[in-house]
């Protein structure tokens, strides 16, 4: 399987709290600006296409709990590729603290996570998808486990919150696979990691 990540970010790079707050799921730090990502029809269609390609999902603990507390509790609306994928595909959670996951078809990866993910990637299939999960995203990228990065950039400056990329870290080049813009100004880029960037001298 190909490991892909899909992240909603603001123009200033914030990925925290794109949706409404989830009762019982704590945000990292003090953050009161949740709910800034607003999908138009075209952006929603692209997101649905991404979920249709999923063979399995990989989450960090906080994102898993947010999804389980929302999508995991909602009745089947009958026409949602996101709901269908999340309820019919295997879910894996990279966590050393989660016990007794409350969502069916969930496996907790708590030992050698890198080895477990490499084993999942070696299986035949389409995509092992990571949605949100900022800390996990950074760890996967730093361990060269990401095959494709999907970014939905929303036309808003949030001004605070966890950013997708930290202020300092490893440099890397990205190869653009595809790019789209929606009527409301959401830009969607699909990248593949492409080694180290080249610097002018």
What is the structure about, briefly put?
This protein is α/β, with parallel strands linked by helices and 201 residues long. It has helices at 41-52, 61-69, 81-88, 113-122, 134-142, and strands at 2-10, 54-60, 90-94, 106-109, 127-131, 148-154, 174-181, 187-193. Helix 1 (41-52) packs parallel to helix 3 (81-88).
Give the end-to-end Cα distance, rounded to a whole number of Å. Answer: 39 Å
Radius of gyration: 17 Å
Query: What share of residues are in beta strands?
Result: 25-35%
Give a short account of the largest sheet: 8 strands, mixed
> From the helix content, strand content and strand pairing, which structural class follows?
alpha/beta
Question: What distinguishing features does this structure have?
Answer:
Dihydrofolate Reductase, subunit A; 8-stranded mixed sheet; 8 strands; 24% helix; 26% strand
Q: How would you describe what is shown here?
A:
This protein has 201 residues and is α/β, with parallel strands linked by helices. It has a single domain (2-193), classed as Dihydrofolate Reductase, subunit A (3-Layer(aba) Sandwich). 24% of the residues lie in helices and 26% in strands. The chain has helices at residues 41-52, 61-69, 81-88, 113-122, 134-142; strands at 2-10, 54-60, 90-94, 106-109, 127-131, 148-154, 174-181, 187-193. The chain has an eight-stranded mixed sheet, sandwiched between helices. A hairpin with a 5-residue loop joins strand 7 and strand 8 (187-193).
């Amino acid at each position: 399987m190909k490991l892909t990540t899909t992240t909603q970010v603001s123009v200033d790079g914030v990925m925290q709290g794109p949706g409404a707050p989830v009762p019982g799921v704590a945000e990292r730090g003090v953050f009161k600006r949740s709910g800034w990502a607003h999908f138009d029809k075209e952006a929603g269609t692209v997101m649905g296409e991404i979920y249709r390609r999923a063979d399995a999902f990989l989450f960090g603990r906080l994102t898993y709990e947010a999804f389980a507390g929302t999508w995991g509790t909602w009745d089947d609306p009958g026409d949602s590729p996101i709901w269908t994928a999340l309820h019919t595909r295997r879910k894996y959670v990279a966590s050393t603290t989660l016990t007794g996951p409350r969502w069916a078809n969930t496996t907790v990866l708590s030992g050698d996570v890198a080895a477990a993910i490499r084993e999942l990637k070696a299986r035949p299939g389409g995509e092992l998808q990571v949605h949100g999960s900022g800390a996990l995203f950074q760890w996967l990228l730093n361990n060269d486990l990401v095959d494709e990065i999907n970014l939905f950039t929303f036309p808003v400056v949030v001004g605070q919150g966890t950013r997708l990329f930290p202020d300092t870290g490893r440099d890397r080049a990205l190869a653009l696979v595809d790019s789209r813009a929606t009527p409301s100004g959401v830009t969607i880029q699909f990248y593949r990691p492409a080694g180290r960037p080249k610097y002018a001298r």
